[in-house]
Amino acid sequence: MKVIDTHCDALLKLQMEKRGVYYGRKPLDFQHADMLDTNLDRLRQGKIGTQFYAIFIEPDIPMEEKWQHALEQIDLFHTEILDKHPEMRHIRSWSDLKTLHADEIGAVLTLEGADPIGNDLGKLRHLYRAGVLAVGLTWNHANLCADGVHEPRGGGLTLLGREVIRLNNAHQVMSDVAHSTVRGFWDIVELADYPFASHSNARAVCDHPRNLYDGQIKALIEKGGMIHVVFHPEFISDTKEQVEIDDLIRHIDHICSLGGVEHIGFGSDFDGIDKYVDNLENAAKYQNLINALLNHYPEEQVRGFAGQNFLKHMPN
């Protein structure tokens, strides 16, 4: 069963290793590198139909260097993923997802944290032209657009952040709430035409700040948004040392109980995590999750979780 995954951090790993060449390391081979949870071999084995690739800049990078780091990751997206592997197809508009061939894997660029643009909306428009189709205003810390989920003051969107959401709407770009504060979440849901959570779970099941309260989940459902469950064990269970697939399914069960059966998807966070669900350690293991879900849900609903729900709710 083909899968759409709305979050991974492969671009950061590719960049770190390329920069490490100066220290004797070798660039990663996107097709085979064991370090990449989402290498091409594993995408094929796991039947990934579309993979979203986040542009993410580490918070300790000086502000004046962040834009250059973003451009490097976009360049690696082209040189290491697209140019060398013709089966990887750049999804530049949402309609492209509907024309993927059976032997192609869609590749979508996203932005995780608006730090690289500073207060320059021209840079944001440049990212749109580069094909960025989803924008999360923050990672865990504050920037000029909003507070991140770990910022102690817990503020919402700034005036700049509100303008980013308006531009997202105008360009049919999705606005990601995954790392937003509670106040930021409600600001985004109020303003965004296309809100979604690219990699978040249910806080009622695991009380972690990165997860969503029931009221937030219901608001996304009412707005036609998606909740893509994330595979990071810390966001799945706060009681178990070794997390299993059934623990992740409990989050899906809970979201379904809130009326979200047609609003659930997957956002693994592969290549951004160093702890894993048992039997779900990389993209090659995706069908283990699919098979487990088929023991709990009708095939039509599982196909929805795997990607059909996203295709139904994405911008037209």
From TrEMBL:
<dbReference type="InterPro" id="IPR032466">
    <property type="entry name" value="Metal_Hydrolase"/>
</dbReference>
<dbReference type="Pfam" id="PF01244">
    <property type="entry name" value="Peptidase_M19"/>
</dbReference>
<dbReference type="InterPro" id="IPR008257">
    <property type="entry name" value="Pept_M19"/>
</dbReference>
<protein>
    <submittedName>
        <fullName>Dipeptidase</fullName>
    </submittedName>
</protein>
